[in-house]
Amino acid sequence: MKNKTALVTGITGQGGAYLSQLLINRGYKVVGTTRDSRLASLKGLEFLGIASDVEVLSLQYRNRRRVEDVIDGLRPDEIYHLASPSSVARSFVVPGETTEDIVMSTVNILDGIRRIDRDIRFFNAASIEMYGRSKSRINELSPLSPLSPYGVAKSATFLQTRNYREAYGVYACSGILSNFESPLRPASFVTSKIVSAASRIAAGDRNTLHLGNISIHRDWGFAQDHMDAAWKMLQQDNPEDFVIATGKSYSLEDFLNFAFEACGLDYRQHVTIDDSLLRPLDIEQSVGDPSRANQRLEWRAQHELRDVIEIMINAQKTEYELGTNSDSISESNVKIFPQR
Known about the structure:
There is one protein chain. By secondary structure, this protein is an alpha/beta fold. It has two domains: 5-180 and 222-244, NAD(P)-binding Rossmann-like Domain (Rossmann fold), CATH 3.40.50; 183-219 and 248-286 and 304-335, UDP-galactose 4-epimerase, domain 1 (Alpha-Beta Complex), CATH 3.90.25.10. The protein is built from eleven helices and 14 strands. It has helices at residues 14-25, 43-47, 64-74, 88-93, 95-116, 149-168, 190-202, 223-233, 252-262, 291-297, 305-322; strands spanning 5-9, 29-34, 54-58, 78-81, 121-127, 172-177, 179-181, 208-211, 217-218, 220-222, 242-244, 250-251, 271-273, 333-335. Strands 3-2-1-4-5-6-11 form a seven-stranded parallel β-sheet, with helices on both faces. Strands 13-8-14 form a three-stranded parallel β-sheet, covered by helices on one side. The protein is globular and about 60 Å long. The model is unreliable at 326-340 (pLDDT under 50).
């Protein structure tokens, strides 16, 4: 395994950083891509202590020739495609851009593999958002029913990945990922905002957190656990799609309560519900069924939601103690969209 090379798109995101750490620990050479390596923040890679162990390249994923040049030049054993816009809320604002970025990047990589080397193994980061308001636990046979431009685009990548597998014999599979969190979650996401607000308020900040619908339920996991499943998927003899989830669902109100409780606070004294922050469409409940991954991959989530929140809270505290946290709440009321 020491001779294996992995290409990780979106390496500076939380999933890319944790996956890279896992791959390095397993002896891989890791090369990552981001849209502009000169401007990209390596904070997540530095947080995990691996920034000097990876090579980061610039790649415009919609540029088919450039994508093929990178694949041809590197000839990786495995490609993990994690790069894409990840904000469900923003996808309602820029649906065309979201669709093009997500779909064309996936097709260009798949077609590059088809043209250059079909022995390259490909992992596509699909999403549980593809299933919309499913009335039951989501498994690999659940019908697609997306309710957002993001979910629609991810559904297209899921179908394209399956098509390249069946039509061209490419080792291509999709991880149907439930929501996953970590200290590396971008500050613009509601979960990160909640953790940050709770930490700040506990430290003396008097600002109020404004949120939209806190009754939504999600299956929240830990980024490190999800990326371990992604790696295991590409180690199988045959490519298959798997739901990667904890199998447990919590409301955003539960998340709020756990985070503020961990800081010795009652969220009801610091949070205001703002109807103007509601989405045009929202999934009220979403929970994955990881049974197949449990059995075939011998994988299961190692962290409960409270564990994940505690990890995020502790990272915030460490940043405050070191004076390195630059994400300040400068307004008296912070409006936040609930996002994936």
